[in-house]
Amino acid sequence: MTTRDLDKIFNPDSVAVIGATDRKGALGRGLTANLIKTYEGEAYPVNPNRDKVFGIRTFSSVKEIPNSVALAVIATPAPTVPQIIRECGEVSIPASIIVSAGFRESSPQGEKLEEKIGKIREEYGMRILGPNSLGVMRPSRNLNATISDKISSPGGIAFISQSGALGPSILDWQAGYEIGFSSFVSVGNMLDVDFGDLIDYFGKDPETRTILMHVESIRNPKKFMSAAKGFAKTKPIILEKPGKYPESSKAISSHIGSLPGDDSLYESLFRRSGVVRVEEISDLFSCSEALAYKCLPRGPNLAIITNAGGPGAMATDALLNHEGKLASLSNRTIKKLEKDLAPYTSKSNPIDVSSDANVEDYLNCIGTCLKDEGVDGILIIYAPQGESYPNQLAKALVKISEKSEKPILTCWMGREKVQESRNVLRNGGIPTLNTPEQGVRIFMYMYEYLRNKKLLYETPKPLSADNIPLKHQDSQRKYLKTITKRLISENRSVLTEDESKRFLQTYNIPTIGAYVAHTPEKAADLAEKIGFPVALKIRSPNIDRESSTGIAASNLESKTEVKEAFKKIVSRAESQYPEAKVRKVIVRKGIRDVHYELSLGSKKDPRFGSVIFFGRGGIDEKLYHNVAVDFPPLNEVHARRLVERTKVPELLEELDDEPSVRLRSLLEYLARFSQLVIDFPEIKEMELDLAGTKRGLFTVDAQITLDKEGFSVEADPHAHLIIEPYPLKYIQKKKLKDGREVTIRPIKPEDEVSVLKFFDTFSEETRRRRFFVPMKEVTHEDMIRFTNIDYWREMAIVGALEEEEKIIGLGELITEPGEDSGEIAVVMGDPWQGLGLGTKLVESLIEIGKDKHLKKIWGSLQKDNFRMLHICEKLGFQVEAEYPDMIKVVLTVR
């Protein structure tokens, strides 16, 4: 089932209303009336208890309707819905909207009904929106399949809401902003169609420019992440989500039937997928309006210009609360302001032009601030007082804004006195907000949107950690897998410190060695060997890390101290944990020169899969609670952004003489740790204590907890991840006809520079045959399509001469979610054509297609591309269609 199937929901040519009625107070009355009055296609009322509804003949069931039906809208009691869905499947109705309530959100019995509907849906391959959905609107088609009597005007916004009751209010807000909807969707319980499906659909919908969402819970974060990342680059996705606190989260669960999850994980999901999260529903429309502005702020530095001190102070507080910055005005700017403004006005930011300022004062101030390189945007506040000139100022601002490369936002305070000037601003494309605080929020949303887009676009720097998995995937990784299987078979879930550190050392993560001693004498000998001071800690599979902190000793300076400490630790452990095996002690090197402590770990969340958390450690962790979370995989960009969301960079600047070097080492550390999380879905939780010293960053303490319930790695080794990692399994070595070895591997974002150089080896003929049109100058944004891909949706592979670090061939396999076919394209640089690489790339893409369970693989070729046509025919492709200059070749995958 694909997103194309959703066309039957949003662009149906016929609709059956099941539960149609004209009885006042009935759920189906509004639905029936709306579809009969406005819908352009055929509407068939279905009700076995009525002959007519609103004077129109009804049918007793969908089986009686003489014509085919594209969409069924169901508004009958919950217990009747499973049978109705079955009847829809039997007459090949491809899509349904279930408006009825009384399912998972209400009771265990309702949950069973919903499960039953789900099984029927799978049996017939239907798409279902709901249950418990308000319905959908498609204004351009005059389709109002909701119970609301108001239909939006057509526009460019797709609004997706998880709250049905919020629908009428949203439509009222939309009308107040004088903007239209391409669609309005109430998702309900998301038995089938969910946020990811809808983002995919509206991302490709030509009527939709912006996607707005009210989200309460995301059931499939992986699908959401993949869809949002795919379209956030080209269409703003703006959402509002309540449930930041346990109390509000509990309130949500009462009507969606499940707990939404930890809000910090949602924050990371939205940030990583490129969407903007706003605080208030009204901000959705204001932010949408602002993101349609021709330019976005390049930084968080805002200049505030006001004619009233109070609103200026309010804006300043809001700016700092949202981690923005008051723009630091240059000396040149201040001198110009001193020349243009009255002596008693404030020339520092926020700039108070005073209550008696006129239009010229405002315009002089605005022009000066726009020229200041330290200003990323301007918020202009106008409070009606003294001489009134809002319309004149608004018209002047529109002219300035047309030429400005920096965003200008406005806050015209009041209502009736400034409404006309607000219309002038809005019609002129200038965002205008109701309060200073909202103006600041919208500015920061604009900045966040650009920053998140840059995260999607940014090319990571190569890390040495990128090669770690390849070195260890055969012997060391298999050895660790053997350990995990043995421990789980022994019914052990918690690894000891030395066992945990063995995992880290395999991935070249620096650790303080942990050595095991069975006797006081052995502990003393080990201490002397590794050097004093040393620390001791109990080693027992029955005593976890947290419990063992009180059964330890540190700063031991002699063999005598070590022996005494050993005896005390074992005695204390036997006393506190009489059933535990406590005959061993960990000996490790003590650290004296600790500059700072950090915390790093991972945890497997039931909804979001494996999550990485990082922040300050030790006493600082308790004082600052400064921890950030993200999802694996982490490349250099993601690792850096994770660190930047904590106070650690400032800590390195304060305490380290080489902060940039230390930061680079930390990013390597995080990337390697991320790969460990990726490779071992058996790991339920990891906790690491890190110490920063002059010699580097080390893991002092570590504990890994395994998933005792087991994990079917053979079925899907990446089921614990919501972002598909780099697919190591597709790396292979091949020989070219001239004897040279080429590595065929999936492309990486780090390959951008190499791919650009590869394109330089194309002749005009090669460019024409690959891209079919003259190729313009390749930009960084163009490279995103080739190198920064979603491995879950598509695949691009390169042929690389590793010794020369040179890419000589490129192949792509492009698929859509739910599709069973994919398109391939292959190109080689001119110096390497005729060496057999094209055949090897196509063969690799076919194998990848099989792995993705595709049924067909196809490609488009120019008719004179005889070399590639020969490769395709040799590998079993058949010519399916011929055009004047092109042919389509298709391979049926077996």
From TrEMBL:
It comes from candidate division MSBL1 archaeon SCGC-AAA833F18. One of its GO terms (molecular function) is ATP binding. It holds the Pfam family Acetyltransf_1. Its EC number is 6.2.1.13. The lineage of its organism: Archaea, Methanobacteriati, Methanobacteriota, candidate division MSBL1. Residues 501-537 form the ATP-grasp domain. Keywords: ATP-binding, Ligase, Nucleotide-binding. This is acetate--CoA ligase (ADP-forming). Residues 742-894 form the N-acetyltransferase domain. It is an enzyme of class 6 (ligase). It catalyses: acetate + ATP + CoA = acetyl-CoA + ADP + phosphate. InterPro entries: Acyl-CoA_Synth/Transferase, Acyl_CoA_acyltransferase, ATP-grasp, ATP_grasp_subdomain_1, CoA-bd, GNAT_dom, Ligase_CoA_dom, NAD(P)-bd_dom_sf. It comes from the Archaea.
